Each structure stands twice: as structure tokens, then as C-alpha cells.
Amino acid sequence: MATMADVARRAGVSAKTVSNVLSGYPYIRESTRARVLAAVDDLGYEINVTARILRSGRSGLIGLAVPELGQPYFGELADEILAAARRHGLHVLIQPTGFTREGELGALREPRRRLVDGLVFSPAALDQSDAHLLENLDYPLVLLGEQMFSRHVDHVTMHNVEGVRAATDLLLDVGRRSIAAIGMLHATTAGSAALRYLGYREALGARGIAVDERLLGWADDGWHRANGARAMAAVLDSGVEVDGVVAFNDALALGAMFELQVRGRSIPGDVAVVGFDDIEDARYSVPALTTVDPGRREIADVAVDLLRARLDEVPGATRRPPVLHVADLRLVERESTPARAS
Amino acid sequence: MATMADVARRAGVSAKTVSNVLSGYPYIRESTRARVLAAVDDLGYEINVTARILRSGRSGLIGLAVPELGQPYFGELADEILAAARRHGLHVLIQPTGFTREGELGALREPRRRLVDGLVFSPAALDQSDAHLLENLDYPLVLLGEQMFSRHVDHVTMHNVEGVRAATDLLLDVGRRSIAAIGMLHATTAGSAALRYLGYREALGARGIAVDERLLGWADDGWHRANGARAMAAVLDSGVEVDGVVAFNDALALGAMFELQVRGRSIPGDVAVVGFDDIEDARYSVPALTTVDPGRREIADVAVDLLRARLDEVPGATRRPPVLHVADLRLVERESTPARAS
DNA sequence: ATGAAAGCGCTAACAA
DNA sequence: TTGTTAGCGCTTTCAT
User: Fold this and answer.
1) B59-158+294-311 with B161-289: one CATH topology?
2) CA of B46 to C1' of C9 (A)
3) pLDDT per position as a tens digit, A38-54
4) Do B285 and A286 touch (CB under 8 A)?
5) Per residue in A287-329, pLDDT tens?
């Protein structure tokens, strides 16, 4: 395969000049540039990126660590991150962590192997006690979609608590009082599940309603549809009355709706349902799902911008203090909940 | 940041010995290995993968080019490919091509830049006239999920035609005669759309039914739910009678079901619906969607195996002739179609 | 505006 | 079982 030296020889210039042309260095005579590009074309030359990275120390690749692409939320998020990165000439290496601690620790080691310049990381298995693992890293890191881990790291997060609280308030506003929470996890103490449960509890508490344990639907195997259906079934089987459902993500909500309809409950007549994420499916379920749009596009844009800013920081100079960006969130009312009396 | 030389110094060995330990070379005294690993640990050393790739010429990375991760079929497929690769110690660099010709041509150039050793490619924008672009490449390539492009390239495909034909036959078997086809594309002549349409036409033809143009639902903007709903609406608005729907993928089917239900048609009573892909959503839609399982897991496994075999081929020796693997496919009957009289 | 020399960090090839 | 030497292909630094 042709190397830069081959191109240089053919164009009658030095390798450095070829390098200059290919990396957009401006002070090159137009005729020289043309000859170089012609030689590149003739030889079908493609630059060897590993050599370039090794020498320059920068890859233009950013890592994206998410649990699983098959979950529409993360698949759609990955597409948004990729698009944002591309707008700035960056590429993305995706590392699914499989919801495992091991996977997440592996992703955190990756930038030190020098293939990616920095990392956008959406933790799902690590918890607050691991905060120290995210500090004092020697590469740029942006954390996504979770609560604060550390004041020393850039975060792009969403109003988890307020989002679920608003969702629950909507159900309360339309008169529902037996509201199930679908998506409880035993494992984490401070992850999305805990925060979203908090929003649920706060909303009930503000109206003096106690949490009924029988209304809590557990989904320790992950926030998939199957588990939403299963958790809903468990709640219904407990014999408790249910007239509303707050699910901690849309997949759970869709699974729960499935189970409700299988059992002949009408939505929203018998049971009103709210989700979280606003994935594409939510718009086309039957009935269309009322849900919380967490501002995925904004999250992706801001995350990439924060990372870029860190990548451009000069080592010596004082660095910008860590940022906590909370994306705007919006309750999207559709058919799975009755209209509020206005 | 520590280099291999630093580790070597600390362990009192040569750099080559460190290299040997880290790459699993077996003939090393146990005590030496222990000392090296201790030094690695002490220094928090991580290998520089770009240097390793540059020197060895192999990266252990395979490229995966798919249109878009937000589409559940591709998100789920990506997870399967990643899992299959990991089982063999390979990593995956995902390149979404955005359904564009430019994106796909870019992905095809990537391995020549030497970061990935080979490519698993699911084309969506290229067509038969581009077959020559896929031949005589100087790296291993496996094509996915489409028709044959060239006898000179490994393919892992599915029974597109037979799958849709079986789906259409099911509808015909239960007495439906006005069957809409959702997902027609003007652009491609030999892509999935064309093949799936062919299956539809064949099934009708075998029973002497002519294709009614008004029953063809176009989705040139992509096989998303929104377009399934839109195409279904267009068909219904044409005034033609409809008692069955064959959608060319599940997202389209779910969108079509949404539109049908919005208009008060019962499923499967008034209209029976069949999809293609068996994404997770299909199991939990209301009603649960009858669909064609294309054998995604098998496709991923076989694709990675074929690529691995090519990567291991010795340059001089005669190479295995190209393989065309057609994954097994299964019609999954759920609630969106009536049971067949047996 | 272009070139020459050096070296990024690792492993192939060979030697011991 | 371990070490030495060389060099992968590029960009940095410095020179002109």
C-alpha cells in the first residue's frame, strides 16, 4: 500500500509537503497542492491514521460509553452524539458497557491507551461510591444523563427528579391517586432509578399521599419492555388498585401498557400512563404515550462542546472550572393521559 | 504517561519481555511475568494501542457500517455484532452512514487508513451498479442483510423475498385480498425494498391477484414509524379497500398500525398486519405484531466468523472462495393477524 | 513555501 | 526464556 513517501516522490516534493497539504496547512503554492493531490489520486493513497495519531498525540476520536445500543434511548443518543461530533470534524468510538461495572471500568481505561482523545460516558453500573474513579483523570471526561458524581467533572444531565415529579403531578392533577411506579432497582442508590423514584415520592408527598409498597414495580433486569410488562403484572397481581402509572423510561411504559391492555384495562380511561425519554416509539404507540422529553439533542450537543473545549485547553494554562449543564425538559402530553382541566 | 520502557526498567527486563507478557506470549518464566505485571500495576501503565497497531499492522478492530443506530433493527444488530466480536477478542468501530452514498463510500475507505482490519457493511444507499466498488478491495469485507452484490464478496443475507412472501401468504391464507405493501422506495432497484416488494408480488401472483397501485405505500424518507403512518394514511386516503398490510419492516408496521387504529380500524379484525425484523417492540405493541424474524443473532455470528477467517488467511496461500450465507428465517405469528385455519 | 532529520512507542526478526 | 536492533509511517522541530 502506498505511503506518504510514495506520494511525495510522485509529486516531486518532500513528505512534509504532502503532510502539509493533507492536514490543511495554508501556506502552500497552489500548483504544489494540485500536484500533490493528483499524486494522491493516482496512487489511491489513504493516510495511515495510526501513524498520524502516534506521532501527533491526537486522534480526533472521542469515545462514547453507553450501556446498550439496542435500547432506543441510547441508540438515538448515539446518533445525536455522532452527528454533533461530525459537525466538528471528530469521529466517535462507541463502547457499549452492557450495564456492567467491568464494562464501565474498561471504558474509563480506554483513553489512556491513546486511541481516543477523551470520553463521553453515560454511567449505569457505577454509583456514588465510585466517584473517585472519575476524578483526576489525565484525559477529558464528560458525564451524561445522571446525577452529579463529582464537582470536579463536567456533567450534562437532566432534571430527573423534576421530570418524574411533573409526570406524577399530571396524573394527580387528573384525579389519579393509586399511581404505580415502574422501574425500581434494588442495586443503585443514586442512579437514574433512585432520582426518578425520588421525583415520584416528592410529588405524592406534596399532596400528603404515602407510598404504597405494592405500587412499586421492580425491574432489576434492566429497563426493557419485557421488564415493564413483568413489573406491571406483579403490581396488578398484588391486588392493589391502580389508576395511574409512572414508568421510569418509555420502554418500561410501553411494556406496562401492553400488560394493562392484555388484561383489559383501558388507557387512559382505567389507567393513565406516563413515560420518560420521548423515544420515537412513544409517538406511535397505541395510545400515543405521554412522556418526558429530556432534551436529548441538547445533551448531545453540549456534551461534545464541553469535550471539545477541554481538548483545546493548553496544558499549562488555568482550566475552566467544571460545568454542570442541566438540559431543558418538557412534558409531552399525548393520548395515554386524559387532558388536564384548564 | 508511562511507556513500555518505563515498565521494563522497573521490572528489570527488556521492553520486548514486557511486550511478550502483555500479548500473551507463553514462554515466559512465571516469576518474570509476575514482576512485569507488578510493574504495570505500580505505574498504572496502559499500552499505547496506536503504536502497537502501527508496528504490528493489525488492530484487532473491525469496522461496522450501518445506516443509523436509532433504528432498533440496527441498534440491536450492532449489539449482536459487538458481542460476537468480543467473544473473539475483537473490538468494533461503528460508522453510521446515514443512509447516504457519501457515508457508505467513506466507510469503504476506512480500512485502508489502517485503523480497522476489515469491515462488516450493511449497504442501504449503494446499489447494484456500485458492485465494482466492493470487489478487489485489499481488505476483508463482509456484506450484510441485502441481496447479492457480487460473487466475489462474502455475503450474509436473509431470505428477503421468501420472508415477505410467507408474510403475504399468511394474510392470503386467512382470506385477505386487499393487501397494502408499506415501505416502497423509488430510489433503489435491488435493495431490501425491491426484494421485499418482489416477495409481495410473487405471493399475490401465485394466486392470480394483480397488484393494485393504490395499495402501494411509499416511504422514500426511510423506514421509520412516522413514514409507516404516513404511507398507511396515503393508502387509506386513496379510497381503496384494505383488509391486510404487509410492511417491509417492523417500524413501518407499527406506524401503520398506529394510523389504522387512529382511524378506528380494528386489528386484526378489519385489517391484519405483518411486519419484518422482529425487533423487541414487535412483541410489546398492541396488538403484538406478527412479523418475520430474520435471524439477527445468526447473521451477526456468521458475519464476524467470516471476517475472522479472512483476517487469518495467509497472503500467499489460496483463499477460500466467497461465501453466501443465508440466515434462517421464521414467521412469528402474534396478535396482529388471525390464526390460520389448520 | 518547502525540506531534512529525528523520534512518537511499539513489535518483527533475529540473536543469544 | 530473554535481549538487541531496526523500523512501522507519520508529524514535530528546525532550517532554509
Assistant:
1) yes
2) 12
3) 999 999 999 999 999 99
4) yes
5) 999 999 999 999 999 999 999 999 988 776 788 999 999 999 9
Where helices occur in B285-327 by DSSP H, the ranges are 296-312
Nearest to A54 among B54, B96, B257 (CB): B54
* CATH fourth-level superfamily of B59-158+294-311: Response regulator (3.40.50.2300)
Q: Could you tell me the pLDDT band of residue B285, with boundaries at 50, 70 and 90? A: confident
Of A1, A92, A285, the CB nearest to B138: A1
Asked whether the beta carbons of residue B114 and residue A69 sit closer than 8 angstroms, the reply is no
What are A229-273's pLDDT values in tens digits?
Answer: 999 999 999 999 999 999 999 999 999 998 999 899 999 999 999
Give nearest nucleotide to B29 (CA–C1'): D1
> What is the CA A18 to C1' C4 distance in angstroms?
15
Fold of B1-46: 434 Repressor (Amino-terminal Domain) (1.10.260)
Apex CA A326: angle with CA A320 and CA A329, to 5°? 160
CATH 3.40.50.2300 corresponds to the domain B161-289: yes
Question: Which nt is closest to the CA of B28, judged by C1'?
Answer: D1
Of all nucleotides, the one whose C1′ comes closest to residue A27's CA is: C1
Enumerate the residues of chain B whose CB falls inside 8 A of the CB of residue A226: 280, 283-284
What is the chain B residue with the closest CA to A59? Answer: B50
DSSP string, A159-205: -HHHHHHHHHHHHHHTT---EEEEEE-SS-SSSHHHHHHHHHHHHHH
Q: Which residue is nearest to nucleotide D6 (CA to C1')?
A: B55
For residues B287 and B315, is the Cβ–Cβ distance under 8 A? no
- Chain B partners within 8 Å of A227 (Cβ): none
Task: Write the CA distances from A252 to A74, A188, A222, A245, A255, integer angstroms.
Answer: 14, 18, 9, 10, 5
Report the share of chain B in percent with pLDDT over 90: 83
CA distances from A34 to A11, A12, A21, A31, A41 (A): 9, 12, 9, 5, 10
Pick from B134, B131, B130, B132: nearest CA to B120: B134
